[in-house]
Amino acid sequence: MGTLRGGPAWLAMIIGLVLVLAACTSNNGETDPTAGTSAGTSEGGEPTADYPSEDLQVMAPADPGGGWDSTARAMQPVLEEVGGVGAEVYNVGGAAGTIGLAQFVEETAGDPHQLMVMGLVMVGGIVTNASQVTLEDVTPIASLTSEQEAIVVPADSEYETLEQLVEAWTVDPTSISWGGGSAGGTDHILVGLLAQAAGIDPSGVNYIAHAGGGEAVNQILSGAVTAGVSGVSEFADQVEAGEMRWLAVSGEEAPEGIDAPTIADSGFDVVLENWRGVMGAPDLSDADREAVVQLITEMHDSDAWQAALDENGWSDFFQAGDEFETFLGEERTRIEGVLAEIGLTGS
């Protein structure tokens, strides 16, 4: 029988090797299934505790100043708080978010640290822009907020009520110009529905689209357009400062703190609310998708996010994971029908 050479040092090395092998095996002697997987995931489909493991990137697929931009920037500090990492917001504007969507699909595949804000505007914009890239190319994570639309005019406008504005519009449809967000988006849809309710051909509406909320606000204030349409929160500061005047809001009743009639109160059977949400990168593993859904759920449940909803006048409209994916499919069908009905698409 041979003897073990090397003394205590050799024995320590053998013991260390045995401990390493034991740590990498399961109770059945198989290799640990999480060994070698990416940070934040496991092959079993459950998120691990170390996601996010690097800074998050949040795309707002519009120019600064609009609803997607403000949503992304409201998310930023809350994600940093609940995720324990940095979060950077960047803007890619144009074509109802479809330019940003195309870039997001091309550049972020498989990366759970990449997020994109989106919403109803993008659902319509994909149709009206005949985008080759769609929401089926990215990963649904959650809807976050809903918000009423508002119709405003500059404070010195001759129109003091929506009824007065629509009366002039009916007499000469080309005389009234409407400023809002992207063509085919929520703002455009609202103007089309209002035209339809007033007996005006929606295809002849003089609608001037803008790539971001800041640009639209400037056009309204300058008098370059007759009236403006956007989310209530995007006009609240200008109305409070006495630079704009509410004509109507688009919900069943006015939001708390907003002294304005509804469109229905003004005699037109139109009710519409915008919503916004967040998507993940294409081609996420099941585990990464679950990890991102969990992070956004924690963000939603935090006191800081609830405070952001109150501060911005947004309604809580949270649906996550599979529930949100189902909603997206239903919403696409609904919006395609509305766009066809008001003449913004062929059929």
Molecular structure report:
- The protein has 347 residues and is α/β, with parallel strands linked by helices.
- It folds into two domains: 56-147 and 274-341, D-Maltodextrin-Binding Protein, domain 2 (3-Layer(aba) Sandwich); 148-272, D-Maltodextrin-Binding Protein, domain 2 (3-Layer(aba) Sandwich).
- Helix content is 41%, strand content 19%.
- The protein has eleven helices and ten strands.
- Helix 2 (67-83) crosses helix 9 (286-301) and helix 4 packs across helix 11.
- The protein starts with 6 loop residues before the first helix and ends in a 6-residue tail after the last helix.
Rg result: 26 Å
**Count, helices:** 11
Structural class: alpha/beta
Q: Tell the overall outline.
A: globular
- CATH fold-level name of the largest domain: D-Maltodextrin-Binding Protein, domain 2
Q: Can you tell me the residue ranges where pLDDT is under 50 for at least 5 consecutive residues?
A: 1-47
Assign a percent range to the helix content: 40-55%
Top-tier CATH class of the largest domain? Alpha Beta
Short description:
The chain is an alpha/beta fold and 347 residues long. 41% of the residues lie in helices and 19% in strands.
Helix and strand topology:
Blueprint: H1 7-23, E1 56-60, H2 67-83, E2 87-91, H3 98-107, E3 114-119, H4 120-128, E4 139-154, H5 162-171, E5 177-180, H6 186-198, E6 206-209, H7 213-222, E7 227-231, H8 232-240, E8 244-249, E9 273-280, H9 286-301, H10 303-312, E10 315-320, H11 322-341
Parallel strand pairs: 1-2, 1-3, 5-6, 5-7
Antiparallel strand pairs: 3-9, 4-7, 4-8, 4-9, 4-10
